[in-house]
Fold:
Amino acid sequence: MNSIFESTHTDQILSRIDKLTIHSQPKWGKMNVSQMLAHCSAFQDIANGYSFPKRSWLGIFLGRFAKPLFYNDKPLAHNLPTIPDILITSEKDFEIEKERLKQKLIRLQKNGPEACTDHPHPFFGKLTSEQWGRGIYKHLDHHLNQFGV
Structure:
């Protein structure tokens, strides 16, 4: 399974982000490309321990059983619900959001797995740094596939 903490995988993701344009259209979902970039950037803030969304009741009861969905080899299903705190509905500037996400990924890769939060994921609960690395890659891959890159 790919991990954002392996430099070759981070480089692949960064290359795919660079292929996005302001005109990239989603194959599914409601977010435009700028909102998707902002959403992925906000997700990095959770993984890095800069943002602490509350755990949902559903996550508290079911998250530990569903946790492998976050970091296994199967692609994420389309149109899954998202963490309400990182659901982006406002308009965003494409170039700013693209650069912000790239810089957060470069910093995350540079800081390594030790920089991942100990705070539980809002749905899945406590994750190891290895699980975070795989899950971050999988989440980014999902959204980049959503926009055809």
